[in-house]
Amino acid sequence: MKIVCLDADTLGNDVDLDSVFGKFGEFVSYNMTDETQTIQRLQNADIVLTNKVLITKDIIAKTNLKLICVTATGVNNIDLDAAKKANIPVKNVAGYSTNSVVQQTFANILAIRNSTSYYENYGKNSDGWAKSPIFVNLDKPIFELSGKKFCVVGLGTIGLEVAKVAQAFGCEVSYYSTSGNNSNSNFKRVSFDEVLKSDIISIHAPLNENTKNLFNSQALNQLKDGAMLVNSGRGGIVDEEYMAKLIDEREIYFITDVLEKEPIVANHPLLKVKNKDRLMITPHIAWASVEARRKLIELSAKNIEDFIKDQNG
User: Fold this and answer.
1) Cα-based torsion angle of the residue sequence 263, 268, 274, 277 in order, rounded to the nearest 10 degrees
2) Does the annotation count 284 as an active-site position?
3) Residue 209 annotated to the active site
4) Given strand 172-176, what is the order of strands in its sheet?
5) N or C terminus: fewer CB in 10 A for the chain?
6) pLDDT given for residue 308 in this prediction
7) 3 and 40 in contact (C-beta within 8 Å)?
């Protein structure tokens, strides 16, 4: 088997891909792949590993792939219809990043609620705490999570764990099912109107016809003063341009690990926000703990191993 990884940089340089995938046959790894390079790099390849590089109908037609391995959960970068018609299995990896996303979600929430950046800088700055006439600094308010209305949008595997942690903090936890099919007796299910009355809203939903632009200008205008919206799901669920405007007009807090276009463009409206203490942008890192990425590689290798066993009968 010849296995080609198209975007190894997205998996980090602290994982030895050669030792993991080289045991299956010839392994070729590229740090990144431009769309103009994909077909050429996949010539003679049996298996492709891709995180974000597109595998289009044209690419499938002009290569001889036998297996497409997505080193992620989402498979929206693959033309699934074309793959199916060509009898090429598409294997993704689910559940590897749950702990990582949950942890990063609360790390970001707490960083804002506790004014962590301000107080850390104040404590380490020789012109800060060292020159204070009193033992404490109360310039920036900090707020407890306990007692706050915390709504999870998308109560899948990750959303459920977020709900449990929020409950452990003493929050009044509810959830909104974006599909309308999810039911969980441990937490209160609410309507979307009720979602918008929450103190903290944490998004853990995929981008689809039910969630695209779910938090549009009309919805965002209904958020209460002091509300926090956290997007650890997918870009495109929140109207980013309107949110940028809202942050400067009202006391609304926005934390996002994902954007509609990634990486962020230099002229993005969120980069022009004046009230930056109400905004946190992280570069799609919630999934990417060291442990999660190692698990991702292990499960991707398992997908290849299972495929080869099936081929050999």
Assistant:
1) -20
2) yes
3) no
4) 188-189, 172-176, 149-153, 200-203, 228-231, 253-256, 279-281
5) C
6) 95
7) no
Residue 170 to residue 151: CA distance in whole angstroms: 13
Q: What do you get for the CA distance between the two ends of the chain, in Å? A: 16
Cα separation values, 4 from 92, 158, 202, Å: 16, 30, 36
pTM more than 0.90: yes
Which position among 41, 113, 284, 293 bears the catalytic label? 284
Catalytic member of 241, 262, 298, 305: 262
Q: Which residues of 272-296 are buried (b: 16+ CB within 10 A; e: fewer)?
A: ebeeeebbbbeebebbbbeebbbbb
Catalytic option among 113, 234, 278, 293: 234
Q: For residues 180 and 20, what is the distance between their CA atoms, to the nearest angstrom?
A: 40
Tokens of 232: 């650890």
C-alpha distances (whole Å) from 249 to each of 74, 88, 197, 226, 229 are 35, 51, 18, 12, 15
Q: What pLDDT does residue 178 have? A: 95
Number of residues that make up the chain:
313
Residues 67 and 46 sit within 8 Å (Cβ to Cβ): yes
